[in-house]
């Protein structure tokens, strides 16, 4: 995940893509933490709600893989299937780190 | 440069707000932002944006609640609302439409889709607004034309009348006319046409022309009304008709002839005396070829006053007041009106009748005539 993808996806300049990318990264970091907390507390509704938000916000910026993973979390949490959510969260965390790397120029 | 269109974006997700703001401002739109329902409603009422993009899933006041309130507020009811939803279920979309949304966008969305939908609904809104403006302009023309047809007392100094006229809508169903039949004879005509639409104003124009043709020295008042009825039966649509009252006053012979076509009774105040109704039965105008009209001839004196009015003066469907019940109190309201200056009488009578209450839900015309 690279913030520069936002440029071409939305037709914005680098500064705007960076601003949106940073906002997304902060939001995702906070949202992933909320999902982890939901898993600990067995709070199905908040997992579903946050996954739903992530699906929309990442998809809107063109990060389809991330959006797809969030959609799977949403569907599975709705069905009460928490067994392999951990793997999905790991992949999402890795993608988020890539986004943060691109933002910090690494 | 034309004014930029403003779009109110409502979403509790800051990222979505920022994203849509960027997309819209890049295209020259003014983006107004709200991250909750109450703020959105306040901004909508104050700024009156051209369009609203409204997220459905929001904490506390959700998008459905917001749109419901927007559509119940006169200040915001006409603003088109496109709702943003992450849920693709038909029920959710249908609920949005039922509440008054014009379209929906499923999240995640592509910015180009948002722009395309914004553009198309702004175009539709512009089209609808111009249609409404156009119709309003035409109705205003009808009003002006209809008002121009109504004689004013200053235009007929010898007719001795004053008037109160309040059409309910642009094309009022009530109208009146004053006819200078000769130097000594004046005709006073008042009619209430069924309906208040544009077709009604066409009837007004037709009847005015018929009065000019048929109210003259050659025909008696009853003959004039029969001639007019015969033509109206031919030209009016089946469901249209008029109630009317025609008063023919010869100031030389002091003879007043009243022809009634299903109209409320005229109030007569002989000079220095108490008011009373002149009750005459008669068929309505424009419905039956063999109609018969009520006729009354009264010898009058200088200073006597007559009051011809439409049923809006007494009837109220809201307060369940019909002719019969409304007229019981009407005579008491006319008491003492014989002594007041004629030009002041209509306004005084109306204020006595409604006493500060809202005006009724019908046209009102009141002709005050002095011999």
Compute the gyration radius of chain B: what is it?
29 Å
Tally of strands of chain A: 0
Biggest sheet statistics of chain B: 5 strands, parallel
Q: Which residue ranges of chain B are poorly predicted, with pLDDT under 50 across at least 5 consecutive positions?
A: none
In round numbers, the mean pLDDT of chain A is 89
Count of alpha and pi helical runs of chain A = 5
Strand order in the largest sheet of chain B: 2-1-3-4-5
Structural class of chain A: mainly alpha
How many strand segments of chain B?
15
**Termini of chain B, distance in Å?**
63 Å
The run of helices and strands of chain B is EHEHEHEHEHEEEHHEEEEEEHHE
Q: Any idea what the shape of chain B is?
A: elongated
> What is the arithmetic mean of pLDDT of chain B?
84
Account of the 3D structure:
The complex is a heterodimer of chains A (106) and B (371). Chain A has helices at 4-10, 14-41, 44-60, 64-78, 85-103. Chain A contains 5 helices and no strands. Chain A is elongated, with a radius of gyration of 14 Å. Chain B is elongated and about 90 Å long. Chain B contains 9 helices and 15 strands. Chain B has helices at 14-26, 37-47, 63-71, 90-98, 111-149, 198-214, 221-235, 323-334, 345-354, and strands at 6-10, 30-34, 51-55, 81-85, 103-106, 161-166, 174-180, 185-193, 242-250, 255-261, 266-269, 276-278, 294-299, 305-309, 364-370. In chain B, the strands form 3 sheets. In chain B, strands 2-1-3-4-5 form a 5-stranded parallel sheet, with helices on both faces. A 5-stranded antiparallel sheet of chain B has the order 6-15-14-11-12, covered by helices on one side. In chain B, strands 7-8-9-10-13 form a 5-stranded antiparallel sheet, covered by helices on one side. Classes of the chains: A mainly alpha (106), B alpha/beta (371). Chains A and B meet through helix 2 and helix 3 of A and helix 1 of B.
């Amino acid at each position: 995940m690279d913030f520069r993808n936002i440029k071409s996806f939305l037709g914005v300049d680098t500064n705007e893509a960076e601003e949106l990318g940073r906002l997304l990264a902060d939001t995702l970091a906070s949202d992933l933490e909320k999902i982890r907390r939901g898993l600990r507390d067995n709070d199905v509704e908040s997992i579903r709600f946050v996954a739903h938000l992530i699906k929309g916000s990442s998809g809107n910026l063109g990060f389809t893989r991330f959006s797809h993973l969030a959609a799977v979390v949403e569907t599975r949490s709705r069905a009460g299937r928490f067994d392999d959510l951990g793997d999905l969260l790991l992949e999402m965390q890795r993608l988020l780190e890539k986004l943060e790397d691109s933002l910090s120029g690494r | 440069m034309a004014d930029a269109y403003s779009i109110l974006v409502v979403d509790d997700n800051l990222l979505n707000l920022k994203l849509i703001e960027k997309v819209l401002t890049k295209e020259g739109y003014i983006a107004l932002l709200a991250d909750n329902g109450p703020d959105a409603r306040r901004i909508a009422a104050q700024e009156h944006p051209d369009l609203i993009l409204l997220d459905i899933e929001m904490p506390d006041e959700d998008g459905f609640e917001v749109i419901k309130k927007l559509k119940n507020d006169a200040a915001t009811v006409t603003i088109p609302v496109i709702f943003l939803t992450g849920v693709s279920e038909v029920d959710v979309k249908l609920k949005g439409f039922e509440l008054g949304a014009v379209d929906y966008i499923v999240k995640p969305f592509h910015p180009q889709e948002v722009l395309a939908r914004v553009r198309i609904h702004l175009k539709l809104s512009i089209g609808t607004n111009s249609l409404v403006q156009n119709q309003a302009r035409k109705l205003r023309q009808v009003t002006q034309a209809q008002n121009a047809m109504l004689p004013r007392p200053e235009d007929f100094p010898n007719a001795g009348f004053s008037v109160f006229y309040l059409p309910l809508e642009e094309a009022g169903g009530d109208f009146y006319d004053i006819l200078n039949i000769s130097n000594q004879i004046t005709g006073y005509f008042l009619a209430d046409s069924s309906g208040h639409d544009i077709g009604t104003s066409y009837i007004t124009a037709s009847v005015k022309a018929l009065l000019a043709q048929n109210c003259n020295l050659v025909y008696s008042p009853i003959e004039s009304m029969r001639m007019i009825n015969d033509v109206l039966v031919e030209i009016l649509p089946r469901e249209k008709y008029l109630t009317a009252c025609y008063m023919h006053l010869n100031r030389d012979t002091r003879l007043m002839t009243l022809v009634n076509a299903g109209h409320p009774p005229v109030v007569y105040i002989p000079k220095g005396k108490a008011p009373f109704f002149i009750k005459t039965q008669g068929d309505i105008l424009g419905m039956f070829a063999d109609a018969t009209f009520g006729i009354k001839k009264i010898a009058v004196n200088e200073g006597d006053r007559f009051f011809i009015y439409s049923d809006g003066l007494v009837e109220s469907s809201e307060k369940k007041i019909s002719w019969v019940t409304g007229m019981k109190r009407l005579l008491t309201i006319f008491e003492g009106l014989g002594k007041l200056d004629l030009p002041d009488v209509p306004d005084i009578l109306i204020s006595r009748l409604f006493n500060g209450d809202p005006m009724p839900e019908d046209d009102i015309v009141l002709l005050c005539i002095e011999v």
